Amino acid sequence: MTAQTSSAPTVSGQARSATGRYTYRAKALRPQHTDHTDHAKLAHALGVHRQLLSHATSAIRTLTAARNELMAQAIEDGLTIATVSAATGENMKAVRTIALAYDDLHPSGLPRNVHLSAMKQKSDELRAAERHRAQITERREALIVMALRNQVCDDLELASLTGLTPDHIRRSTRGIARPA
């Protein structure tokens, strides 16, 4: 069967022919192309945020371990729990627990001000790393909300892209208005 006869005029290459027969429309722009592009961009952005979040969490673990060791060493060298607590911003119960976890330390002989400045510096670095992680998490949540509002991904796909559970995605986006 032929697509068009020579006697039937066509309206355009993308519309139906005047006779109602099939017209070739392979070059017509499809809206799925833009949806695929949006999906690819969003998947890439969520992957980048997942990696950034992983690096930030790793940095926080490293800084926490270093700060905890400095705290335990300071207490071993004679600083009081209250002094260490004031210098680091941790409560006294947490400082006591941290100090008891390091039972193989020996006195280092460092002066009090060296311990205090090192603990303050590590605590400041740790707080900065936690703020950075919180910013990454906020941007990830904004991407999730954008994906759900624009219907680029569903809950399960977002969960796989972010490394979160589908239940967490549903709970965190509970109040978000989604198009029907």
Description:
- By secondary structure, the protein is an all-alpha fold.
- The protein has helices at residues 31-76, 81-88, 92-101, 112-149, 155-162, 166-172.
- The two termini are 41 Å apart.
- The protein has 6 helices and no strands.
- Helices cover 65% and strands 0% of the residues.
- The model is unreliable at 8-14 and 30-34 (pLDDT under 50).
- It is rod-shaped, with a radius of gyration of 30 Å.
Instruction: Identify low-pLDDT runs.
Output: 8-14, 30-34
Distance between the termini: 41 Å
**H-E order:** HHHHHH
Protein structure class? mainly alpha
* Percent range for β-strand residues: under 5%
Number of contiguous helices: 6
The radius of gyration computed from the alpha-carbon positions, rounded to a whole number of angstroms, is 30 Å
Mean pLDDT: 84
Biggest β-sheet, characterized? none
Shape: rod-shaped
> What percent of residues adopt helix (DSSP H or I)?
55-70%
The count of strands amounts to 0
